[in-house]
Amino acid sequence: MTRRITCITKLPNHQDRHRRIQAVGGSAWRDSEETAIANVKRDKSAYDVTEQGKTVKVIVKKHDGREYLKTENDHFLPDNLLSLPDCS
Question: For residues 72 and 79, is the Cβ–Cβ distance under 8 A?
Fold first, then answer.
């Protein structure tokens, strides 16, 4: 079952875009970045993001030896996850 990510929790004042996300969330759920990465590695359709009617999958990439979450290239927004509102 795919979970739709509608918000994120960012590390405060972190300048590296590959290390900013601390957690992802949606309606009544929240997963740490570590849990979300494990979920995506286990199931490629674990999460998605919808922005202005376009839905893209969340994938795992590696930068400087560290895994991080990002969305597939949708030719729309460069940082679909980072543009989501903060989870309250």
Answer: no
β-strands 7-10, 21-26: how paired? antiparallel
Whole-number average pLDDT of the chain = 87
Q: Beta strands of the chain (E only): which ranges?
A: 3-4, 7-10, 21-26, 29-32, 47-51, 54-63, 66-71
Over the stretch 60-85, which tens digit does the pLDDT of each residue have?
999 888 899 999 876 665 678 888 89
Question: Two tokens at 61?
Answer: 């990439």
Closest CA to 81 of 4, 23, 28, 8: 8
